[in-house]
Model the fold of this input.
Amino acid sequence: MAITKGYELEPCILVIFGATGDLTRRKLYPALASLASEERLPQSFAVVAVGRRDKTSEVVREEAKSAAMAQGMTRESDSLVDALLGRLHYLQMDFDDAGAYPRLSSFLTELDDMYGTRGNRIFFLAVAPQYFGTIAGHLHRQGMAENNIMRTWQRVVVEKPFGRDLASARELNQGLTEAFGEKRVYRIDHYLGKEMLQNLMVIRFANTLFEPLWNSRYIQQVQISVSETVGVEGRGTYYEAAGALRDMVQNHMLQLLTLTAMEPPVALDADSIRDEKVKVLRSLRRIDQRNFTNRVVRGQYGPGIVDGRPVVGYRDEMRVNLNSNTETFVALKLHIDNFRWSGVPFYLRTGKRLPVRSAEITIRFREQPGVLYFGQKHHALGPNLLVIRIQPEEGVFLQLNAKQPGTQDTIVPVKMDYCQNCRAGLNSPEAYERLLADVMRGDSTLFTRWDEVEYAWNFVDEIALLWKEADTPVESYPAGSWGPVAADRLLAQEGHRWLLPLRCLLSERPQGV
Ligand code: BG6
Done:
């Protein structure tokens, strides 16, 4: 997982299918520009942007540059980025057209001669999932998907949504793995590219302070909370079919959960880590008819105020059904039935149009026996909390109890906050920079393996089915609030409550509640 300087990377061509789309503009071009300016691209490298529209390479270079500038990833003149842009070529083709693939193949061979890229390819499918199989199939039939005896390699990268249920995910997967084989399929979950998720393993396994306490004897509960202030941002059509369960829980939220709960891997290679993550998914207690109303809550935002501005409710968003029953908020109470976690509730919540943007994992430790300090007299005593701050602040926060200076025996919670991106000059690489660099190195640690996807869908499908069968209307919450009241009841049954994100508690910005 080390950040590699480009000169250590093997030559290759990155082929982006869906080059005129949103993902390419918002994420891929800026990430490439940033990698170029930090000299973290291979020395022999080229990019081929493939799209349906009629464009020239010059136009696409301009678009890529503005996209990177818009994200602050390059300046008007940056010779390293300009050199990359000079190696960006556009090829117009229809993904369905078998006849276009020989043309793509000979174009890539020409570029190999020009740039010394030696036949190595990364195919990034930044297209709707229904094209995954078509493109992979054509590449396969054209002989462009196999590693060959000349020791070249061919990798494919896909984005979510990886299906809308287990059955459709299987179908997508079959098309991809038939062409490339599991080892060369890189399924992106961009949360895994976030700096603090990689740091989570280090914090857990490189500190004597935490690992011995990381279990049900010492931990009372875990909260994983990802809140967004944005709404569906013009993606109504997609979101209507997905909802928060498929959009966030199936992938990002379960990834956060597995990294928090997994056992130490036997080694730091991709498969050892992913083996442990899969075990967590396998140990998730099933949610069934008898318990699901006490374990899952869903909500949908109505009109309200976010960031001081009035916003419309979900049903009034573009391309959303006026009577939509799609959830924009999900809260879950989960149990991991294994030796380490028996009896510890894991509370997960995620939603759109909540008061602040934040992603945090909070570990709440058990209280000490009430013999000395945990009595009546010391009621100000707080629990020990460890908060892994994923975004927007990245860091670690620890709450301890200490005596208030100058008093005889007043105990107060003291806060130790390490924020690694709050200091100037310590910018973490964007998730896509990290992920692209890893594909170039052939490191699949931060990508999801098929069995992870499979278990995650299995779990989510059961919940989706229970909702469908129960046919209960989704509960509304005002935009700018912390979700439906039922989410509070979910924890109240256990005498627990949701913790506010630290940025509210530490007054980094006004409290949004
Ligand atoms: C995407 C979801 O995968 O993640 C979006 O499709 C969501 O709906 C986004 O807004 C959140 O990502 P981040 O990095 O902004 O937390």
